[in-house]
Amino acid sequence: MATNPNHAAMAAETDAASKAHAFELTYRAHPSVSQDAFYQLPRTVSNDNAPGTLLKVERETNTSLYTLAPNLSMSRFIYLSKTSSGRIIPVSAYILWPYLARDYGDGLPVVAWAHGTSGTNDECAPSNIQNLWHHFQAPYQLALQGYVVVASDYAGLGISNDLEDRFIVHEYLNGVAQANDIAYSIPAAREAFPELSARFVVIGSSQGGQAAWGLAEKLVSEPMQGHVGTVAISPVTRVLNLPDTWPTVPLLLLMMSPSLAAYSSEYSPEHIFTPEGQQSLQTYLQLKGCNTVLFNIPTNGILKDDWRNNSAVQRYQKVAEVGGKRISGPMLVIQGGIDPVVYPPTVTDAVSRTMAADPSVSMQFHMLPNVSHAPAMYAGLQIYLDWIAARFSGEESKPGLSRSDPQPVRPASSQQIEANWFIQNETAPWQAV
Fold this sequence. Notes:
The chain has 11 helices and 10 strands. The chain is α/β, with parallel strands linked by helices. The chain is globular.
């Protein structure tokens, strides 16, 4: 009997996902969050506590389990946040400490870092990943520049159940939910470490770019004392605006599916996924894989043609999207011109609609030629570090939109577009010098 080529291809891709999962296990600080006592909730608090309440702090994290830049230090803490619907939930976070801090005269300067997509289950918490997921892309750079980096894992990543032992769904690509997680991490971190400055900048990339943007929108109606600016790098703004042919659309819907089910009792995966898509979703959920697994899951032909018309998708996106609303400025937006994950025109559109909502707000927008998705954190490093320093120095931000598309020093043909390396712990003393 002849083998169905589609089934054979899916089997090969499923095998690739299993190998990717085995690789993911090698870069965790602990084999599982369930085996790390830090993620166990104290039983002396209740859901009646307000968001921003500090539940637990690990003042000195064992940095030998991580692949940090030398002389950086780390702490971890658990605090209360709330979902997009207002449910109180516990969230884990880490703090990355500089060796020497910048001195602006009002305590240690805080940068709230919002991470990009690491996955959608509890095992995907950056605080349990050896390189904190974004390593020299941003958090290491910020700490090495003298900032204290406060980084939420986001709800559902790290801690899987709330104080009443109810499961926490990670509300993937929900700007409101992740904005809450960032916002409430700041007072909790200050409660744990009073030496932190009252002033802070928020910066995020990809999913974190959306989260940072969402927080800027939240602060219009719920101001936070000390917020001096927001940076959004390669931000996801609205999944429904992505073209049908955009390669990341199936991946995003796979990760959004549990959120859709939690948000709408009427939703079921077969509403938007083909039988092949339902199998891909099952593989992803069974493996409890993170981002590396996801990019090795079969995605060809997994979405039904009318998935955009699904009422649960439309309602969720209405709540989750960012852009086109007033923000508490100033804001810096950095986008790669050849980003294969976030469709660059959607970012340009979100900037335009945000300026239309409030022409007096201060926005800087940089479209970086020949720059991809995550590499925008490297290519835009000088831009955002200078911008953050200016905010802490009290430099005035000019109202209105300022856009520039900087030209690189060398031609595109001489540049490495994507990273061809990764960071992992040494297994022999001669490997790290």
